[in-house]
Fold:
Amino acid sequence: MSNFLEVKNLSVSFPTHDGLVKASNDVSFSVALGETLAIVGESGSGKSVSNLAVMGLHNPNSTVISGQAFLNLESGPIDVISAPAESVRKLRGKEMAMIFQDPMSALHPFYTVGDQIAEAWLLHNDGKKTDAMARATEMLNLVGIPDAHKRVNEFPHQFSGGMRQRVMIAMALVNNPSLLIADEPTTALDVTVQAQILQLLGKLQKELNMAIILITHDLGVVAEVADRVAVMYGGRIVEEGKVDDIFYNSAHPYTRGLLNSIPRVDKVGSHRLHAIPGQPPSLIALPKGCSFAARCEYKRFTQGSICNESVPALTVGTNGHSARCHLTPAQVAQHSLEIGTGA
Ligand SMILES: Nc1ncnc2c1ncn2[C@@H]1O[C@H](COP(=O)(O)OP(=O)(O)OP(=O)(O)O)[C@@H](O)[C@H]1O
Ligand SMILES: [Mg+2]
Structure:
């Protein structure tokens, strides 16, 4: 599979009165058409900031961005980080689209959902308003909204939370983008509706052959839908790999900690919920060594004080499974048994 999006050494920081907030730090990831990459990590680890940079949605006056993010279009690759804002605006909504956690904040309360979807279509297509409204109805049908021809004339507040999220998906997909970035798209929904929305995204992905980046806190969701997973911590990707390698053979102590902090149905009784003690690092004063060292139970198995002294390089193993740790994957696996929190 060839990659549609290739992010290379992306860094995003925000100059503030207190110092430079390094929210995304030398981040590289890619996603192919038809593939789902999940990005997971604690709150504040840089998931949204990294992806907003890909969408060109940061304010250039208050953000420092370096690195590259190539969209491999039929006409050739384009680096959306260095491309002029006007070119990126033309790609946004057409080649790449994003949906957010809270559809109410993204939908305008005074316009019908049909008007808003039609508007998104008209931005990138020459056509009449009637064509655009027909397309809006078609999209509402596609995302499974019953009586689409009637509901297209209703306002966002007339839809339930799950239905509003379907409207957002319809709006994001109205121009058949090749890349969909879904930032916590189901967090605000109850579990049944969440499952329906994820099923819908999976179905649309197959039909439209989209690359999907799914940003989520929820490892259960990851296990369901992801092909590959990138784990972020303190602005860096600390581990990346195929979903099974991440779940059954994780090579980074932070990932092991994350996996142990969720209750597992298959281990009831034998497995206590194990939250990772401590706090993530300050992004203004990142530690000299590994960002996770202060919380890492595996630090004692390394030589001297290497974890506090140097940032581990990203080492790539089989299947493209990579991790930033001074211990090898085999050492992490072995010590996880000793620590007793093996995932
Ligand atoms: N405009 C900004 N100015 C200063 N700091 C910012 C700005 N935007 C984000 N940050 C900081 O960057 C860090 C990363 O934020 P980001 O929104 O990417 O986290 P996240 O991983 O998406 O977290 P969550 O899971 O809570 O959505 C946070 O510490 C945040 O406070
Ligand atoms: Mg976020």
